[in-house]
Specification:
Layout: H1 2-38, H2 45-48, H3 53-56, E1 64-72, E2 83-86, E3 89-92, E4 98-104, E5 107-113, E6 121-127, E7 130-138, E8 154-161, H4 169-179, E9 184-187, H5 189-192, H6 196-204, E10 208-211, H7 218-222, H8 226-244, E11 250-251, H9 265-271, E12 275-276, E13 281-282, H10 292-305, E14 312-317, H11 322-336, E15 339-341, H12 350-354
Helix pairs in contact: 4-11, 10-11
The structure holds zinc ion.
Zinc ion is lined by residues 161-162, 212, 216, 254.
């Protein structure tokens, strides 16, 4: 009995020890698996700290979405492809006259809408979080109708070449806005691509935009075949279309046509859909030596030599200082002679503009 029970106890003890070993192996393995799974998020002094209060839950403000519809005030028809600026965001309405701008901050925003043949519309809207809608009605009034006196039927086209310039173009635009005068900007592609906001501002403020080639390099444009010129025009057209939604058909040859365009080039350019716009009044500011006083004098001299029925196409540049001082005086002298200002529209008759120079 004793012998048996001692053997039995020994066996039980052995069994208990085996169980303990087995249990510790199982527990050890489980612990290994647990720590392996925890792995990367194993506690470190850093993430054992309680979360900061600010991280717990502070609702982030919902950005505003603005949906706009643009209508003709008189007919109530929607206006398609209308450029709209909302603060520093730029949009174009679709064919149903609507546009949506996402991710705006709630609060006041300035809206500018402009369609060809309509007065520029500006207003300030207050945006709330989430979605706001607005309907904008544009008036069909020419830009300078209210500000002009009785004209004698003659038009003056201010044409401003070689920009946009971040330094001078905004100042020129400020003068034109103050004087309520539309102009036509012949833009250089390599400059336009660096200043898309300025290109939009020109157009949104009611001015016309023309193509003045991508490079403005006489050697590149006129030194080889006419294809170089056409390539530079289409490259600029693509840049302007990416900014404004259209590629202008009016263009001006850098340096003018005479001495630059060879015999059949003008017809080749015209066959590609471009309308050439030259000038018959020069302010002379193509030269870096010309002062603002000389610009005014040159312009007056040319204006007074025009025939009694001639329109004036006035050449200026917005890449140097003199235009800023000269422009208000040139506008006043041109008005005093009975001209009414207009932008050169793509539909302007080719022959009227090309003849003369
Ligand atoms: Zn030029």
């Amino acid at each position: 009995m004793n012998m048996r029970s001692r053997r039995q106890r020994k066996a039980e003890k052995k069994l208990r020890r085996r169980k303990q070993v087995l249990l510790s192996v199982v527990l050890g393995g489980a612990a290994l698996i647990f720590f392996a799974a925890w792995g990367s998020s194993a506690p470190t002094p850093e993430n054992l700290r309680p979360p900061k209060k600010a991280q717990v839950s502070r609702p982030t403000p919902t950005p505003a979405t603005l949906r706009l519809w643009i209508f003709d005030q008189a007919t109530k028809e929607v206006l398609a492809n209308t450029p709209v600026s909302i603060g520093r965001h730029f949009l174009t309405t679709d064919t149903s006259g609507s546009a949506a701008s996402f991710g705006l901050s709630p609060g006041g925003v300035d809206i500018t809408a402009r369609a060809r043949g309509y007065a520029i519309h500006t207003e300030t809207l207050f945006l709330e979080s989430g979605e706001n809608t607005a309907a904008i009605h544009l008036k069909t009034i020419a830009l300078n109708e209210a500000s002009e006196g009785v004209g004698f039927g003659r038009k003056a086209y201010l044409t401003i070449d070689d920009g946009p310039s971040s330094r001078w173009t905004p100042k020129v635009l400020d003068v034109l806005r103050r004087e309520k005068v539309p102009a036509t900007f012949f833009l250089v592609g390599r400059r336009a691509t660096r200043q898309p906001d300025l290109v939009r501002r020109i157009y949104l403020e009611g001015h016309e935009v023309g193509n003045h080639t991508y490079s403005h390099s006489y050697r590149e444009l006129y030194g080889g075949s006419s294809q170089n010129l056409l390539d530079s025009l289409s490259r600029n057209g693509e840049i302007l279309a990416s900014i404004l939604g259209f590629s202008p058909s009016i263009w001006r040859p850098p340096g003018g046509a005479r001495g630059n365009l060879r015999s059949d080039w003008e017809s080749r350019v015209r066959a590609s859909g471009y309308v050439t716009v030259l000038w018959n009044v020069s302010s002379g500011d193509g030269s870096t030596q010309t002062t603002s006083r000389q610009m005014v004098k040159n312009t007056i001299d040319y204006l007074d030599r025009l025939g009694p029925k001639d329109n004036a196409i006035i050449l200026m540049h917005d890449i140097r200082a003199p235009i800023v001082t000269a422009l208000p005086k040139i506008i006043a002298e041109t008005r005093r002679r009975g001209f009414q200002f207009a932008g050169v529209e793509d539909k302007t008759r080719v022959r009227d503009l090309i003849s003369g120079r």
